[in-house]
Design goal:
By secondary structure, the protein is α/β, with parallel strands linked by helices. 18% of the residues lie in helices and 27% in strands. It has helices at residues 53-59, 100-111, 246-259, 363-369, 373-405, and strands at 11-18, 29-36, 41-46, 70-75, 89-93, 115-119, 142-147, 155-156, 185-190, 195-200, 205-212, 215-220, 266-268, 273-277, 285-289, 295-299, 309-313, 320-326, 331-337. Helix 1 crosses helix 3. It is elongated, with a radius of gyration of 33 Å. The N and C termini lie far apart (91 Å).
Amino acid sequence: MRLAVTPKVLGYAILAVSIPDDFLSTDNCREHIIEVSDQYRVLIVENQPGESRLIQLALEPIKQVGQAPRLEVINKLDLNSIDLPTWDAIVLVDLPRLGESQLSRLEQFVRQGGSLVALLGPQTQADAWLSDAGEISSLLGFQLTQPTPIGEWTVDPLDYRSPIVAPFAGFPDSGLLTTPIFRLWQIGARAADLEIDLATTVGQPLLVRHRLGDGMVASLLSAPQDGLGDGRADRQWNALAVWPSFLPLMQQLLQVTIGSNAAHVNLLAGEALQGNVQETTDRATLTIERPDGTENQIATVTMDAAGNLPWTYTQTETRGVYRVRSTGGRQQSFAVNVDPIESGLESIDLAELPKPASDVAPPSQVVASTQPPGQDHQLARFLLSALFAMLIGESLLAWLLGRRSG
């Protein structure tokens, strides 16, 4: 069943669907929170003028399928003066390095619900993304090590499990599997939640994602090129931008990354509510309004390096909508539903049932070998009569023996 709904307000909206009450009322209603926007606001950051031209051409066709994106291109030097929270997504196009303050602002942008797409290529410098300990980058979610040798790397869609790659399933001639990849970045230590959307057939990750705070970061480990380069073989990493799979891949990458921003507010019963609060003090108190109307209060503990106050609420055993209010007046809703795995009943063909063992008689033979119901009843009457006669005989014998002894 497919339902069409047109939200009438921008921002977060709660969708609910219910069925008539039955004996199991717990799962008769489900809520889902979506974020409604009139357009995508995408900020593209390049190192030199014109380097993001291919990315712009790939993202502009989104306007043909509904939401028209608002694209703006800036130089990396202008990143410090841009009001990042006004954008839905930021695309970094093969930047050599970013300053510490720029990385900090980008991390705060993502933690507050923004989306970041990092296209890493020949200009990228690995040491620019290392953490203070030289291991996993908190922003990217992995350790960037070194590029692979130049070769011909074949793409593995990983059974099309990723929502970014899923639209290509069933279309082997779409160009995804034959995308020319000559070189890509290798990664070392990874965050526990790092998802691999695309890889090479030898297991090298090619497209990865991870959640950071309320937002999402996606990294393409071979920045799209037209295959021409600048005459240097070590700078010709791929011909992705001239391949037929390029446009749908980039559009799906952006839409999934932006669409994932509401994933943290749609949970299953038992999963914790989590978020960040921005306050001027180092502590804050939040009020949790539960689905039954009762309220709980929790206090934040410590402020993180980005100036946020992270909080967690674990008492989500009840299905419904939870509303979280901070002392500053900001409100965030969370939809908690029952895990539907036990409700996913499917009918199967009789031929799919396991065959009976060879030493088990067919049902017709089993029925034929049993005694008719009438014979069972006669045997039961005989046994009951014999038992009754034995009881009477025992009583009579006891009476006679008692008279003789008297």
